## 1
Amino acid sequence: MDRRAPSPLVLLVDDDELIGELLVLALSGAGYEVERARDGVQALKWLTGRQPQLMILDLGLPLLDGLSVLAALQQRRAIRGPATADFPILVLSARQSTEDARRAMALGAARHMVKPFEVPRLLAVVSELLDAQASAPGCDGPKARG
Amino acid sequence: MSQELASAPSHRRLWPDMGLVGLAGLLVFGLAYFNLSEISTRHVTAPLWPANAILIAVMSRLRPGRWALTLGLGLAAMVAASLLRGTAMPLALTLPLANVVDALLCVAGLRWAGTLPPDLRRLKDAGAFLVFGGLAAPLAAGLIAATARQLTGSGHFLQNLFDWWAARGLGTLVFTPALLALTPARLVRLITPRRRWWALGLATALAVFLAAVFLQTRYPALFTIMPLLMLITFYLGLTGGALAILATTLAALYATLRGLGPFSLVRGDAAAQMTFLQVFLLFGVVTVVAVAVLVEREQRSQRERMRLRDELIESERRFRAWADNASDVVAYSGLDGAFLYLSPSVERLLGYTPAELVGQSIEAIIHPDDLRAATRAIRARVSAPRESERPPVVYRVITKTGALLWVEARPELLLDPESGEPAGVSDIVSDITARREIAASLSAAKEAAEAATRAKTDFLANMSHEIRTPLTAILGFSSLLENLDTLSEEARRYVRRIVAGGRVLLSVVNDILDFSKLEAGQVHLDPAPFDPQEFVRSTAELIAPQIESKGLSFALALSPGLPSSLIGDSTRLRQILLNLLNNAVKFTAKGGVTLSADYDPGSGELRLVVADTGTGIPSDKLDQLFERFSQVDGSISRHYGGTGLGLAICKSLLDLMAGRIMVASEVGRGTRFEVHVPAPQEQAAAPRIGLPPLAAPAQEEPGGDAPAADPTPAEEGGAAPVRILVVDDVAENRELVRLLLDFMGHEVEEAAGGEEACRLAQAERFDLILMDMQMPRVDGLAASRRIRASGGPNAATPILAFTANVLGEQVEQCLAAGMNDHISKPILADELTAKVRQWMSPAAGAEAAAPGD
């Protein structure tokens, strides 16, 4: 695994304590710094002040669901400029629904994964997204490799 | 036609024909000899020449091929008779020749008229017979004979002509019918038990009359013969009449030649008497034939009437049997709608007897609510062409006891057979009450079953969601645990078991959910372009670890003909392929698995083949392989695990894709699954639709390829921050909306109620006002009305309502109060941003300026 300095900051948005703990363990074990939000409102509040290098977003969230968070971020980029929300977003969902995935991607998610996920695979995807972000020039919004 | 009938048998019967011809020759000779000796001694010519009639009668029964023989023999007989009688040579040849010509012309004429042999009971045949036999042929023969005599200088030409004509014509007319009638079949008909006594009585009467008329010379009672001839013809037919005229002729000739009978009273010479006799006979023949024609006509029409009556009786009997015993009601009504006939079954159906309803119309029994529609439907049905699709008419009827029944009627217009005009309506009415009840309960049962299926699927979807989350934790933590450095080897083995078990559990959940969705028709395909090579390779990679761990070989065969891009639901296709590969690995202990892919450009099908060298499937189990919960052997699920749903899912998915799955297997040798799935090649110019495969990295920020449901993302043109007034009495709601709008970059003012909102709206201008509907004191509607009415800076500002009730009524109230749109609660950022964007576009301003248009 590619070691960066300082450790990339990952914002994890998931209301499930078990999965939250699992991901915190896994991600920090892999060398990332992890911050947690437990619902959409918390996530937006956190994002108001700063930006992570990457966000892992569960779709089924209380108060404000994951798709709403994505929509708000998209609108923020539109109004305030791409640099105000310039990080890749990995969406997790427990529903095997292509419709959810489609909407998430349309709202700017970089990748969609269905729960349950394999921890190593998730870590690989995270690393991949960060690499893509790092190699992308400037602040041109979340960038993916064609 | 008639000559064919006559000739066909005669062709076969050569010897009987020869016998007939020989007999004719003998008779002709005898008659000619007699004629010449008895008659010609006293007269210049014979008054009656029956020899020709013999030839005509015989030729009528023979085919034309035999006529020459007959005529030749007849000619020879007559020449011989003439010579024996001492007639000089030229005449002894020419006069018989004239006779033969007479016979030939007569037969040929009849044949030409299509009336050979003649049935004199038919007017046409009788007419032809009179014309040819009585007129034309003898006239021609007379010309020959008179000319011959003229040349030899014997007698007056016209006298000769007339005598010849009368003798030959009359001979034919008198004798031919009798000769034709003299067949065994016809004679037998005279002595049938019914006619026997009549025949005997009339024959006796004729004998008595003939004796009385011709054996005395005092009283010319000739007139009495005519009615008797008519009577005989009337009762005994043409056969009897012909025989009677023959007898009369012989009696008259005999008497007259002996100077007896009424003709002897004729003043003048013997020739004059003979002429009168000939006239009498001519009228006799005409009378007999005329009566025969009339009788035949009468009999024929009577036979026709009888036949019609019999048919009518039979059809009436059949119809009655059917109508009276039918469980359906058969009805006729006139054009006025009044019933003329109802089958007895109406009593079983309605409780009324047919008599009670005859004269009434359908109004007496139909449910009043159905009358108008049924009348219209009946009219439409009877006026539509019969070949067209005409639905039966369904309506309710009320029985005598007041019960309600559903019936199905099939009315048809009855046309008058003579004029073709509508004459009434026939109807067949069946009771469909029970059928309707069954149909109704069936459809209710079907709906219930469908609802149950939906409920089950929804339940399973929720359950699956609930199971997935803890399963994520189980698998995730196990995976962390497994990689812990401090873990003992034994513990690590146990953890792996936990992971394996978790994975099986997951696949079970997925299978059940998938199958349930397929069953409920909730699976929709998502076709998108994909690279088939990449698809097959990446799928094979997923199975590679399992193949490796079992020590099996693996071969991948990709056809060079695979296109670079196909359109299909690759996610679902991968699911199918993985399922087949998993099965192959699962049931193969040694050997290997082969995966090959090919494309058939003709049918546009992608063909995938998964072959293994595993246990195989007995041929008798192949059929049920794709049924749900079917595994070849119950013990397999215990040994290998699995829900038994995998192949059923594959089959259902392929059905959905209009594809096919085929299997071939041999126990102990292996199994081969082949999948054909339609996958059109991507057109180079076609725009990419849907999403890229989920496993692939996302594309650029979605622009033109966003699904239609989503409004065009704002990035396109950039969006401007706006000033928004958020009005809600619940602080949390306000806060959430503010957070969202703030976060997006808008400027937000808050008002905690209607009054505050009005005050703020009066003080400064906003770009947009978001207002809750239900608020204490001044609610959203009232506040909106005030803002609109105030004429202040926000009189034209778009106002959007927050409402939990998006049903028509409340939305209408909003619009009526001057609001422009609504946003549903609970608030979703999606909808909020879309509505904000929508109302902040330049076009929206003009719309808002004229609210509640």
## 2
Amino acid sequence: MSDLQLSILKKVHDSNGVIENTLQVPEFADIDANTLHSNLTSLWAKEMITFSKIEIDQWNLTPEAESFVTNGATPEIQVVDEVLKSLETLTINDLKAKLGPIGLVGQGKAFKNKWLSKDGDKLVAKVDKLPQDIVLEELKTIKETGSLEDKKELTELKKRKLITLVKIVGYKVEKAAKFALEIKSYETDITAEMVANGSWKDAEFKPYNFNSEGVYPQSGALHPLMKVREEFRQIFFSMGFTEMPSNQYVETGFWNFDTLFVPQQHPARDLQDTFYLKDPVKAGKPEDMEYWDNIRKVHQEGKYGSIGYRYPWKEDESLRMVLRTHTTAISSAMLHKLAKDPKPCRLFSIDRVFRNEAVDATHLAEFHQVEGVLAGYDITLGDLIGFMEDFFGKMGVNGLRFKAAYNPYTEPSLEIFAYHKGLGKWVEIGNSGMFRPEMLESMGLPKNLRVLGWGLSLERPTMIKYGVSNIRELLGHKVSLDFIETNPAARLDEALV
Amino acid sequence: MPTISVDKEDLFKLLGQTYTTEEFDELCFEFGIELDEDTTEECENGERPQLKIEIPANRYDMLCIEGIAQALNEFLGRSEPPKFTLEPATPQITLTIKESTKAIRQYAASAVLRNIEFDERKYNSFIELQDKLHTNLCRNRTLVAIGTHDLDTLTPPFTYEALPPSEIKFVPLNQTKEMDGHQLMEFYEKDKHLGKYLHIIRDSPVFPVILDSNRTVGSLPPIINSNHSKITLNTKNVFIDITGTDKTKTEIVLNQIVAMFSRYSKVPFQIEPVQIISEFNNESRVCPNITPRKAEAEISYINSCVGLDYSGEQIAELLKKMSLSAAPSKTKEDIIDVEIPITRSDILHQCDIMEDAAIAFGYNNLVKTKPKSDSVVAAPLPINKVADILRLASSQSGYSEVLPLTLCSHDENFKYLRTVDDNTKAVKLENPKTVEYQVVRTTLVPGLLKTVKENRKHSLPIRVFEAGDIVLKNPELERKAYNQRNWSAVYVGKTSGFEYVQGLLGKIMQTMRTPWLENPKTDDRRGYWIEEDKENPTFFPGRGAKIFFRAVQGEEAKEIGSIGVLHPEVMQNFEIPYAGSSVEINAEVFL
């Protein structure tokens, strides 16, 4: 191998630094192109030479044509020769006996060239002397030079299956910066041995190709949605919020709806929207029966300065089992607990909620709700807005606008909008509000301990941030493991460009 | 939230001003409604541009163009609230409710609109308002149903009764054939529009019916009116019947209709009352009651919530923009008296009045402040902290976290794992839309295997884990079920990989300060071990084990989970063409 490389280097040197075409160098002409290429590449990598490919069309004689050249005549000439020699007494059968299969081929060609004709079963020459064997001459030229000037004839001969085309590859080779007649050997890597015995000092190292990726480590990964969840948790922790025990998916109509002043005929309580349970089918009543009674009254007759919804409130509806439709069911239980020792507090949760919705690219039957609750004396709407700016500011969302909205358990209710540059419009990023006095005073919380609540889904900001268009590719079993394994760190405050 | 489609040109005419889409969008935003779409661009040959406006679910007074224009005009200070009057003051027409209705829908209300001038768009708006009320406030006619009639085709007084279906005979609206109650049920069975309401009365032995003094049927609530009393563009006098199972909502619906359409009476906002005679349930009265409700609101409360320092008069000015007429109380300190018009049934408490003051002031004009940072100490939920430790340790061990749903099919949770439901554990859903959501999982393994199935083409081995909640029944609890945080991992490859999941379990236990006990019988330290489990059908025979954990030296150990080679039938059930092993433990033991 390196012998070949050495002789290439020598030849370049001998031919004044350039081999115009290796095909014209007898000692390289027979070397297979792949071998030549890999050796040239090796020299090129050492910056000793540069080279370029030369591709040439070459016509080769087929074995049949080779036999014509060997015989010194094409079959048609042989046939005419026989006919002339026999003085026109030759029959087709005689010819067959004499020349074998070639006779037939030659006879056809000779007829076509109008050198022969037939008289009964006899063959008659239409020429008086042997014609010139032009085809043979052409074949000889091709054998020597690989081609013919007359392209039409080439096509003819190809049709007669006398020649075939092959592409042959040669190379132009030139000296490069590190040209030498000897080849140095390069080390590919520093080994422990080299470090130990100091041989690295004398070794020359193969240059690195830095334009390639390394070998990735084998690793596990956290789920992208859980990474975004962690970002939210850290924002909450940094603002003094304690995580609520949201690990309770099964709720009662009482906690999920009634305590939140959602009337029993509210559309959210429809079978179309809420998952009800058939097993277990009926809940127990809460321990705090005074609270239970307050809730009944505030719905049915009104209490705490509210005229209520004025409908017959049904225990059975309140005791229906549901999968919670929002984590606010947990917030309600936590605020009820707070009423035993009322004081300002900050609570949050990020957990699953369930909706009996038709599944599509943006809706799943379960998803994660991010929820914050802030209780304090005499909190104002200005506080709510100021706080939301801080909260969303921590994830890089600034310049909020607030729109009045309706929610059965908050009054006022404010939808939070932010301008989305990519979409070029204001988009709703969350909901907020002050919990209604009907809800809080039923628990026994003092009138001036006001409570702010706000929420958003975890999936939506994640989808917007990471350009996921189908929620099923984010949450649930249809997620791609490759997506999980290659997903970057979640940094909500990072501007994605 | 209902979306109302209104004629753009008509609305701007009512508002006395033309707006660009952006300007109108801005006005909506400030008021608290939402411009969904302006169809101007899509209108073809002569179609009239529409504005599609989303209305908050409790603003029943804005379900038609008349109401939207009225509310916005008052918000913009361009219009006074309408002053409704009753004429004649003493009702001439009566509607008697018979006790028989008690069995099916016992409440009814009624009113008459005299000398109405309809044109096509007003007429359509009238019909659409009824549709919108039916779907929203009336809960698809279950709570309340509306019937409207050409009064001149009927002869008062009216009765509202409940009769056996066979005794009710009439030609339904837009039909030609007379049918009785049974035939009508059959006739509308397949009807796209009305079929969905039949269930409300079908199984009752009696159907509710509105009759005039000649026993002519006016309507069969909540299904359909009679063709006889059909309203047309030429109708002058409209008789409205409202029936329902909810008394409050019956009143609200009537009030909204008369409030919206009395404007088209010869004397605008004049309504003819109807005497309701309902002795059996003491609900006799004159309908409608148009007297505004008197409410009080504390000035200090409104100021404190909104962050203002306004006088009673200033607050009254704000409230005027929201259709509320208010004035400082002459007798009470710190109180404003507020009159709530019949259109604003959404106002239940002074907090609703406070909201209106805030909207009128403008949410985006409020001075931004910060809530007092009361000294609060933040803390994670303990089980989340434990789960986070397990999640980090698992991912550091080369496993990828997945997040399947907690709802799954009954088969996935039981049959596919070769287990049988003994009805003691799994919570079952009553009304799932698909089999995918039949039960709440009692193990994390099905979700992991489903995720593996979807990733069959991923390079092997596939290593996934989840730390998530399962739900288990407990009849002792108020909520009859509780969550339990589990941790589980699955290895899937050309071989079962039992030793790998066992090694991962070891890594997890090491992380949780729990050594492997080789001789748990004699060694009573904190630690864990596994014991063959011949009973667990999810695992291949002889390749499954229980996991035991002793938390404190000398104490009783607890079985906390299982580990094993997944049975080939389990792999086939989840359509995974490889071998695999799983491990699952209750993470709450580390609390």
## 3
Amino acid sequence: MKILYALHQFYPEYQAGTEKFIYNIATMAQLNANKVKVITYRLGEFSHNEKKSDGVSYEEYFYKSLPILAFKYNQQAFDINFATENPVGLSFAREILQREKPNLLHIGHLMRVFPFAQAALELEIPYILTLTDFFTICPLNTLSPATGSLCNGPNGGEACARYCSKFTSQFIKERLDSTKRVLSGAKEIFVPSTFVANMIESEMNGIKVTVNNHGIRQSTMQPNYKTYDDHDSLKFASIGTLISHKGTHLAIQAFETLKTEHAELDVYGVGEKSYTDWLKSLARKSKVSFKGAFMAEDLAKVLNDIDVLIVPSLVYETYSFVVHEALSAEIPVIVSDLGGMTEKVLHGENSYKFPAGNVDALRDIMQKILDKPSGLNRIKSNIRKSTLIPNIEQEYYVYQKAYKQIEKQA
Amino acid sequence: MKLFQSKRNLVKNSGLFDAQYYLDANPDLEKLDIDPLKHFLETGWQKGYNPSAHFDTKYYATVNADVLKENENPLIHYLRKGKKEGRKALPDPNEMWQFSMKATPFKKTPLLSYRNFQFAINYIKAYGLKSFFNKVLNKIFSRPIFLGLRGSNPVKLLDADKQFIPLKPRRSTVEPYDVSISVIIPCLNAGDEFQFLLKVLKAQKGFKDIEIIIVDSGSTDRTLDFAERFNAKVIQIKPEEFSHSYARNLGAKHASGDFLLFTVQDALPPSDTWLHEMFTILSDNQVAAVSCAETPREDADLFYRQICWNHYNFLEVQNADRIFSLPKVQNHISLRQNGQLSDLANLISRELFEQYQYRLNYAEDIDLGIRLIKDGYKLAFLGTTRIIHSHNRPAYYFLKRGYVDNQFLSDIFSDFEVPKLHIESFVPDIAFVFRFLAELTEKLATLPVPISPDFFAGFIENQFSQQLSRKYPEDLPKTPTTHLDTKALSFFETIIGQHGFTLKGKPYNGFLLQAYFGYVNITTSYLKTAYETINEQLMSEIISCLYKAFSIVVGAHLAYCAKNRTGDESIDMDALHKTLMAGV
């Protein structure tokens, strides 16, 4: 079976969650004797090997074992990140699909590759979608109209008119119609969490989605077997892009007000310079360390060096790889009570959650843990016994069943 | 017209025409939308197409000179005269080895050449006249040479009513069964991921109770801690007490569940409804036991993947679920193709298992499956439901695996024909192919990539063809390979160094090259199926794969040498046997 994967951006140019997900799934499909290719958009420059098509340039290369086709418009429109339809893109998508002749197209994110879904529909090539964020219902993807505010969905465009006035009602309506057509034409739609499923299903009447949690690369994980007594020092950590809506400042602010000397905070990640500078100015205690970025293969080492992970996001996380990787490594997490990352967290049982943005609540949880570090033993034991995070083979297995079913129907 | 109708009725009523088989074997016909029987009677027989798995058109025409001379449809001849006269409809399956791949023959050499004459003499010496005769038939009719391993099309069942389980839509709900399951896992240092397996097993939905029984033969890692955490029943045995059958039978004795699931410490159910899917098949299809295929881990190497792919082609479960029953024609191929159970996942009622139990210390799962079908039971083997499992094992393991597998085959199946190979002539053969492999992989490493799998297959075939005119080597390759593990490298260097140059300078007349070519065809077929382009990373995997394939083929042939031993060998065959049997 030949499967094309499409998404808005890919390795090595970008390395966020959706890229990781498509890399994992496409690699697993290849291991299972399927011919695969990843179609993606290139925001940056090509190397010298690009080819030209009508209004589009593209380059083909390998990322590890995966063949990649990256394209970009010769005239890149201002709305590249939120528009859906694009005649030049549609013509290119038709050309590529007719050339590649896939049995199936699996789209990991519709941004910039939306025309591939339209072309597949037109050419009667079966496709499935995995919605890793809210692109289909929100032009901003995040359902966050401004820093510190969240929306419950477009409600047919009414909420957009109220909170995101830069988009016209007409635009929102047409965009929702367009995405709904593509959703309706999909053989199957998957989402990584129940939270995303509810958001999509409540907005898109009649669309049914299946929850398939993202899997963790178990071969790179090492469970943290550490046990604690009440005299132990603890190391908290925050891991992620340093950008205001990820809320790293909350972790530092909470840490700064803790009443103990037996704690450290490691901040992993890089991001916006002004935000990073501000974070550094907040960190007055010497026990806050800015560790910078780390390679994916060093994740297990990082997780083995910490005791508790803090993920204080101020926007909906549709899944959060790092939360699930930490739980998979038996590291308790403290997460803001938003979106899909809380679904495996039972507060006080296998981890903790706090009201998003509430620094006092976060500090109280951290202080409670520090007052009795041995309490982590029970939390870790509960993670071990009952918190089930799938691995990437298990995640792929669900897709494989869907692929086979579609192949059979074809 | 009347004559045609009469032939049509004759064939139709004979039971020797299987329309589905005919279409499966000749997929181009489906596009023509033609009546398969009409096609066979008009043109198919002239092209040598078989009407079913029970009649070999080319074979019949060739062994019966009168049929060939009269240019008569062989099947019509058989039905009108041949059957009464006791003529055979099928050749003996003595060339059908253990694998399902079609090898493409070397194309470069003319049939009537000195080289082929030499090859023929040696082939007859090793495999016997009957095997040689079948081989010539295949060559004359340009069919693939079934020497060793076969191509991407699965071998047709020799004689069985194939029964497939219809693919059902996935169920969104899990209806609970009022039964309990005991999961039996033999363990030895199961590693950190074992905890995850226990968690996933405990999370299986749809049963009254899931009991886990660990039969541990001396773990020194966290295996027993994990077992305790998940309230598993632990039975400890001494390492020297372990055998595959003993450990599993002992676990079953301690089981209290209505049904037993035998699995292994490094296999992982892919979902929390996996066991329910297995049980549903068992319960809906009245089968005695159900097993499933494996799906690879994310770090599975190319060699392991191609072995699994090939094996499931052989079992015809690549994209299907099958029900096995006793085939009408029984030989080591048809029995293995229809009696397969797998220890990776074998679900069976406790009551039935208690009657049979496992026996043997190797291939105990296949043995159990064959005993069950021989007693009239049906089994299910699932290809659409799978268990996550794979290994990245070194070439040395596969050397031993090839040896042990073929020891087992000849021990358990009376019809398994052991080629008449002798160690004295075989070790120079190893030296010859080992030298070739070193040269080949050096060329592959510097081949400009990307290339297509088709180009790769052609390149490989060409390289093999060139070897036929070469002489036996005088020494080991100058540059030791980095693609073999140290144990395998040491084994090959030692055995070749001590006994590999007795034929140095003489023209090559061995068998290993051809057998190895057959195995390499699995690789090229797999590559054509799974890839459009070979890049640098894949090429590196292919090179490792070629060494592992070499090792398994050498292991298999060493097993034949061991079976043919006379006691006069200059090599210590007891020591060799002990080395190659250890630890598999």
